[in-house]
Amino acid sequence: MEEGSAGVELTHGADPAGQGPAERSGFVSPNWVTTRLDDLVNWSRANSLWPMAFGTACCAIEFMATAASRFDLARFGMERVAYSPRQADVLICAGRLPFKLAPVIRRIWDQMPQPKWCISMGACASTGGIFDNYAMVQGIDTIVPVDVYVPGCPPRPEGLLYGILMLQKKIKRETIFDPGLRVEQLADRRGMFLEPAAVDELSEPFGNSVHQTRSA
Amino acid sequence: MSDAAIPNPSAATLRARFGASIGASGVVGGDTIVHVVRDRAHEILAWLRDAPGERYDYLVDVTAVEYRDRERPLEVVYQLRSIPRAAMLRVKIDLARDHALVVDSVVDLWQGANWLEREVYDMFGIRFRGHPDLRRILMWETYDEGYPLRKDFPLRGRFSRAEQVRRALAADLSAHYSLDELSIAEAYDALPADMRERLATGREGEEW
Fold first, then answer.
1. Quick check: B174 and B180 in contact, CB under 8 A?
2. Looking at the predicted complex, does its ipTM rise above 0.90?
3. Can you give the pTM of this predicted structure?
4. Which residues in chain A are contacts of B171 at CB distance < 8 A?
5. By the CB < 8 Å criterion, does A170 face chain B?
6. Is residue B61 part of a domain?
7. Rounded Cα distance, A91 and A146, in Å
């Protein structure tokens, strides 16, 4: 059995004496299966992820390439790109996110039904990238919880597909009995999704970022 | 670009007509630049648009410049194009730093100046007297950190990242993206007759 797939055991409907109709005809009929509920649920969830594409920049071009025929996102069960958050499972933020769009992506995330996941595609969505300036969110994980970060500027379609496969692996390790797993992490309209100290720490300049001081 | 050093004759014409209201002029990279005083700028631009020999009927861009040298004034830049004469002219207004950053709006001359002047206001804080709708255009309306393209503006903004995120998430989306702004009422006269009728009577379309 392929690693990571649901542990489904096929059992044919033969009587103990081995004289069932299927046995007699030499044909095993998979009339019923036994499996763990987690495996079955995770298997179906992981293999039918519908992405909510939130494309803001050049990463969206690579996302389109990923969805198109050469790389074919549909091979991994992401047949349908949902442009309605109500019918989507995974939010893919492809591109930089300015502060002006922060409440928009937050509302889209809040509109998506559980279970839901988030992929941060590209350097800008993950960290702010080269846009360490007044207008840009320094990583969308200060706005919504992120499951998989895909590095690159922009990532090639293989990169995004690898991130999607990682997300599928992650989903297959989930259990529906984890009480904290599917709880909505709400940011109220006046509040924040993370503590201010955490946001500031995540948004610290790094690499070749400028170290210009603020006046306040 | 073969006549790189030849000034646009409009510069000499302007100087002859408006005299002391015209400041320095010159040719940079083949483009003629004329500085004008602020108080007569609107009159001069109107003349450039309407005078038979000028006819600058297209306003390509309105922008502004702040130089790193703190002594130099801010400049408001109008890039003009005369489509019938196939000529370009750049007009600049110097704004001394010890005066209010206010110039007259040219929306009444070129409708296209509306959003361009809003952008200059948004990025530089220069106000346009007589503008019909002087609001921020790129930054959101509740943005409270100043004018981002000014030299005294810190690149990462004035507030901490946490404060910026908090303010962003607290934004009222329905105010940003209100139906008032995209109101169908403004487009009412341009709608097809049957749609106007449906809107007026509140009736749904035909069953089909």
1. no
2. no
3. 0.77
4. 102-103
5. no
6. yes
7. 9
